[in-house]
Write a structure and sequence with these properties.
hpI Integrase, Chain A, 15 helices, two-stranded antiparallel sheet, three-stranded antiparallel β-sheet, mainly alpha, 5 strands
Length: 358
């Protein structure tokens, strides 16, 4: 049966294994509802083609007047606050910022009010996550204008706007039995097992693990510069990871090589792990969940937050605590019960002997 490909339509498999579609044009993406062939899909597709393809060129090259939002955006794009971010983050921010220029670039930033922000946010729907990010960037631009451009602005108009997006899932840490089954059975072998060990024992993000090269491994540890934060790290290898690395075939410059002897892209790496979890009947667990495992194991071993952060590369206690909170809860709960038992023995010293004699 022949299939017809719709122009500008792309798809991907999300973390739950569901195929999702989106409309892509000039580097920007808009989610499409349901499946191709449905009335909802067709209506949204037609609306996006009418809105995006027939509209004159973007406003990115328009000269904006002083103190306009577009002027602030252009200054921000040239600042270290933008250029120091990871390349993927810059590309994502740039798509939203270019659209903000189109929507309201000529308006004076000082005139921006809360109701205006809500109207702007509505232009980014139905993607609630992108809509929230547009508000976040407007807040960043407001602060940038005050602190770096010396503009006299009042209270931030985004301060009281709540997020629309509600995360539908959490990157859960993997249970021991899932880790054991994945290590023993997941394919492709040996890449799936090596991916598991690198994620579990380095605590790094999927993109950083996918990019690891043999030259980063010195026989004792792995040197990493995190793509998201630029944070440089040297991570000593646990004995199990060291043994696996020392016996792993070096098929290319990358520790994890595809059949074509190239490295995995972050998306391909994530999908490789997702296929492996699906094979063993545990598709709800993601590659990023093993980052939580790494932090939890360190916390349960009695490591301080500073020590955990030295491995995972988190810059703030808040994020490190997000990953170690379960370990902390278990330890505190055990301490609470131990204290309860101790207090009970003090209050009733003869209880256990009476029960034995009876």
């Amino acid at each position: 049966m022949a299939t017809m490909r719709l122009k500008y339509v792309h798809s991907f498999v999300d973390k739950t294994g569901r195929v999702r579609f989106y409309f892509r044009h000039r580097g920007q993406r808009w989610p499409l509802p349901d499946q191709p062939g449905s009335a909802e899909f067709a209506a949204r597709y037609d609306a996006l083609r009418q809105e995006r393809i027939t509209t004159p060129g973007r406003a990115a090259n328009i000269a904006f007047g002083p103190n306009s939002l577009g002027f602030v955006i252009e200054k921000f794009l040239a600042s270290e606050g933008y250029t120091s971010k990871a390349s993927n983050t810059r590309r994502h921010y740039r798509r939203i910022l270019d659209r903000l220029k189109t929507i309201c670039g000529r308006a004076l930033i000082a005139d921006l009010r809360e109701d205006h922000v809500r109207e702007i946010r509505a232009r980014f729907l139905p993607s609630t996550s992108t809509a929230d990010e547009s508000v976040m960037l407007l807040s960043m631009l407001w602060l940038f204008a005050k602190e770096h451009l010396a503009m006299r602005l009042g209270p931030n108009p985004t301060a009281d706007i709540r997020k629309l997006h509600r995360r539908g899932f959490e990157h859960e840490p993997w249970p021991d039995h899932v880790i054991e089954k994945f290590e023993a059975e997941a394919r492709p072998k040996p890449n799936a097992r090596m991916a598991l060990l690198l994620l579990l024992y380095t605590g790094q993000r999927a993109g950083d693990v996918a990019a690891m090269r043999w030259q980063q491994y010195d026989g004792k540890g792995i040197t990493v510069r995190q793509q998201k934060t630029g944070q440089p790290l040297w991570i000593p290898c646990a004995s199990k990871l060291k043994e696996a690395l020392d016996h792993h075939e070096r098929r290319s410059d990358f520790i994890l090589s595809t059949p074509m002897k190239s490295g995995y892209t972050p998306g391909a790496f994530y999908n490789m792990v997702a296929r492996g979890t699906a094979q063993i009947g545990a598709k709800e667990y993601t590659a990023h969940g093993l980052r939580a495992n790494a932090a939890m194991v360190l916390a349960e071993a009695g490591c301080t937050l500073h020590q955990v952060m030295a491995i995972t590369g988190h810059r703030t206690f808040k994020m490190a605590m997000h990953y170690t909170r379960r370990a902390a809860q278990k330890q505190l709960a055990q301490q609470a019960i131990d204290q309860l038992e101790k207090q009970s023995k003090v209050a009733n010293p003869g209880t256990s002997q009476v029960r034995k004699s009876g």
